[in-house]
Design goal:
The complex is a heterodimer of chains A (434) and B (324). Chain A has 434 residues and is an alpha/beta fold. Chain A contains 13 helices and 19 strands. Chain A has 2 domains: 99 residues, Urease, subunit C, domain 1, CATH 2.30.40.10; 313 residues, TIM Barrel. In chain A, strand 1 and strand 2 form a beta hairpin. Chain B contains 12 helices and 9 strands. The two termini of chain B are 18 Å apart. The chains are: A alpha/beta (434), B alpha/beta (324).
């Protein structure tokens, strides 16, 4: 049993309880005990003065790739969980596109247990919740034993890395998963329309001579899945929205009461296809960075609440895999250790969101939307907490990352806001420099 | 290489014409002029690049461009080595950057690179100190092809400024089209593209060109008709239904050229698919400058090699005459 923990004098921002005030916070037995003014606390409590810092529910990322098993040279469950904690995350959802994929209960159980094992050894980071494969071998044909995956700890299903292309399989998934009350996470992409594209279709791709991925490649699948969710009553969650068309479709679906939710990544909020110029493979990801018009539309969607969730799509790749011809480099960038700072810089400093709204998009909303135990500092809830300095400026140095990989387009970027402590189940899992 | 302050110097590399100014492009063409004559001599060799080591790194099949570079190098007395992807360490899985660094370790001066991936030449140029010349990278750029095309147009009309050039065919997959668009626009030409809508890339207008849907419109409009090769794999990709259909709708035939201006000329980068994108009567006819293009290719590549090696445009004439 860890000692009680008392955080004193911080600015507690908890959108789940409409709190934004200077309060103390007491943690006892892995749970939040009290959030009040002038808590004296038990004598054996660890006391930390957090004056001038924000105390908020721990961040939740429903979209990360930890590569284990099979890609341990890029990331492991241990390093991924540590990177997450360093970014202020207390819960992350690990995608199943490992090798072998998380398509049977043993593989799902392994991911959950591996994270717990390191936590027991004092080497823990964020809580790691495995997401099960929706289809066997991620092949898009036969449904996995979803009941078994859920028993082993799966919190959702997806074929992420690939889209669930077959509309009939998608229909069946949206029907079948209702028994377990879990969402189907969709990487919305029509591979036939993508046609081996490597960046956004348009003038920049034309100039660079790179094959383009049109917006309709995403929008067509979002439209289809919105109708399937409406038909079935299932919950479809659209991952990493990148196009203005998809934002419009989701807005319409939500108006009609369809159970369709969506996430957006910090890099789609911050960057456009212009970042690819110079054939920069650290700006190669799928979905690709789009145009300024798309970027503004997804920001607006996030502000309006059409897109409720910010998720990183943390996709580590080894340096040598990215250090090559653009066509041959893998898709994806790391995001856990820059997400909060990039979002404070791009959304809060600009006046688009308040700190409270940002914390909602990065913690409360994912908890609420996905049924995750967390995203709140209400007494009795798990003591998953982030403490960060909202104002300090620093410049992104991938050499300092806890992740095994450094593939970020934000290298050298001047950002605001930095994590000081990340607390999981009442235990300090990360302590950053002042 | 010293900077003489005129802004005519090329940088370390030639990756694409977008990076060059109009003055630099015209400077290369001017430098090519005196080099034309070397290929007409009985003994086609001058000592300008004696002691320079050049690697021709061809990771994609090429006949014309590779041989043209090799002639240019040899006629300037450079030592050359040819590497192709088959039968080299590339087949054993060596990465592009490792291949280049190993070449570098053998102390070379220049690399001429042809590669199937867009951006490969830039990638190499940023990672090795040798001069890098792009001999075609994916769908991105083929600067020496565009330079020889510009020289050929200038030879015929005396000037590029104000000429109307219509590029016909598979614009989408063509590095030749892209490099010509940059080069022609910088030199003051008007540029249009024309082809099946399936092969016109998104946003091409943003580069400053107009688009014709009907080849007849382009023919009537232009002074220079630039016919691109139709790659046979475009049939498999479903971009056009058949070669016969392509010829029917977009093929350049004598009858289609009846509406053309009397002094309009026809270019083609080769190799020609006779009876597909261009009929033999046109390719062999009086408007065709296809073979002069090939001849100019050697002179233009000599000029590029000379300039990147530190030569100055104004000394090209005297450099080729004297034995250094």
């Amino acid at each position: 049993m860890t000692r009680p923990l008392l955080l004193t004098g911080g600015r507690v921002i908890d959108p789940s309880t409409n709190t934004d005030a200077e309060l103390d916070l007491l943690v006892v037995d892995e749970r939040v005990m009290a959030v009040e003014q002038g808590i004296s606390g038990p004598d054996d409590a660890v006391r930390i003065s957090v004056e001038g810092l924000v105390v908020a529910p721990g961040l939740i990322d429903v979209h990360v790739h930890f590569r284990e098993p099979g890609g341990e040279h890029k990331e492991t469950i241990r390093t991924g969980a540590k990177a997450a904690a360093a970014g202020g995350f207390t819960t992350v959802w690990a995608m199943p596109n490992t090798d072998p994929p998380l398509d049977d209960p043993a593989a799902v159980g392994y991911v959950r247990e591996e994270a717990r094992r390191w936590a027991r050894k004092g080497e823990g980071g964020a809580r790691v919740s495995p997401v099960g494969a929706a289809s066997k071998g991620l092949a898009g044909e036969q449904m996995t034993e979803i009941g078994g995956l859920v028993e082993a700890g799966a919190v959702a299903v997806t074929d992420d890395g690939y889209p669930i292309a077959d509309p009939l399989l998608m229909r069946r998934l949206l029907e079948y998963t209702q028994r377990f009350d879990i969402p189907v996470l969709q990487h919305a992409e029509d591979m036939a329309l993508t046609a081996a594209g490597v960046m956004n279709e348009g003038a920049v791709a034309t100039e660079l001579g790179l094959r383009g991925i049109p917006n309709v490649s995403e929008a067509a699948v979002v439209a289809r899945d919105m109708f399937l969710a409406e038909l079935t009553g299932g919950h479809v969650h659209i991952q990493h929205i990148s196009t203005r068309e998809a934002v419009g479709l989701i807005a319409r679906g939500r108006e009609r009461g369809v159970r369709i939710t969506a996430e957006v990544t910090p890099h789609h909020i911050a960057l456009t296809e212009e970042a690819v110029r110079g054939y920069r493979t650290e700006a190669k990801m799928n979905p690709p960075l789009r145009t300024e018009q798309d970027r503004l539309a997804i920001r607006q969607g996030l502000i309006d609440g059409v897109i409720g969730i910010i998720a990183t799509d943390h996709a580590p790749h080894h340096y040598e895999e990215k250090e090559r011809e653009f066509d041959d480099a893998p898709f994806g960038i790391v995001g856990l250790e820059t997400a909060l700072s990039v979002c404070v810089t791009e959304l809060v400093s600009t006046g688009d969101l308040t700190l409270s709204q940002l914390i909602d998009r990065m913690s409360c909303a994912p908890a609420r939307t996905m049924g995750i135990d967390g995203g709140t500092l209400q007494p009795g809830s798990p003591a998953d907490i982030v403490v960060f300095d909202p104002d300090v400026k620093w410049s992104v140095d991938p050499g300092q990352f806890h992740s095994k990989s450094q593939n970020t387009p934000f290298v050298g970027k001047e950002v605001r806001g930095r994590v000081r402590w990340t607390i999981v189940a009442g235990e300090i899992r990360y302590e950053g420099e002042a | 290489m010293t900077d003489n302050g005129e802004g005519l110097r090329l940088g370390k590399d030639l990756v694409g014409l977008k990076d060059l100014s109009r003055e630099q492009i015209l400077g290369i063409l001017d430098t090519a002029e005196p080099f034309k004559e070397i290929s007409e001599r009985p003994i086609k060799k001058v000592p300008i690049l004696r002691g320079q080591t050049i690697v021709n790194l061809f990771m994609e099949p090429s006949t014309r461009t590779r041989i043209s570079f090799e002639f240019a190098e040899k006629r300037l007395s450079a030592d050359t080595v040819n590497i192709s992807s088959s039968g080299s360490s590339v087949q054993k899985g060596e990465s592009l950057v490792d291949t280049a660094r190993n070449l570098e370790a053998m102390r070379i001066h220049m690399v001429v690179v042809r590669h199937g991936s867009s951006g490969a030449a830039r990638f190499l140029a940023d990672r090795i100190p040798s001069n890098v010349i792009n001999a075609g990278d994916g769908q991105h750029a083929h600067p020496t092809q565009a330079l020889l095309d510009l020289l050929t147009i200038r030879d015929r009309f005396g000037d590029i400024e104000g000429r109307r050039v219509c590029i016909v065919g598979d614009i989408q997959h063509s590095r030749v089209a892209r490099s010509n668009i940059w080069g022609l626009l910088k030199c003051g030409a008007e540029v249009a593209v024309c082809g099946p809508k399936t092969l016109i890339p998104a946003g091409i207008e943003d580069l400053g060109v107009q688009v014709f849907g009907r080849v007849e419109e382009g023919i009537e409009w232009c002074d220079v008709l630039y016919v691109l090769r139709l790659q046979l794999e475009r049939m498999q990709g479903g971009y056009v239904p058949s070669l016969r259909e392509y010829n029917r709708v977009f093929g350049i035939s004598s009858s289609r050229l009846q509406q053309a201006a009397s002094d309009m000329i026809v270019l083609h980068p080769g190799p020609i698919n006779r009876g597909v994108e261009i009929d033999s009567a046109v390719a062999n006819g009086p408007r065709s400058v296809i073979l002069p293009q090939v001849t100019n290719g050697v002179a233009v590549r000599m000029a590029v090699l000379y300039l990147l090696a530190g030569g100055q445009p104004e000394f090209a004439e005297s450099a080729k005459g004297e034995d250094k």
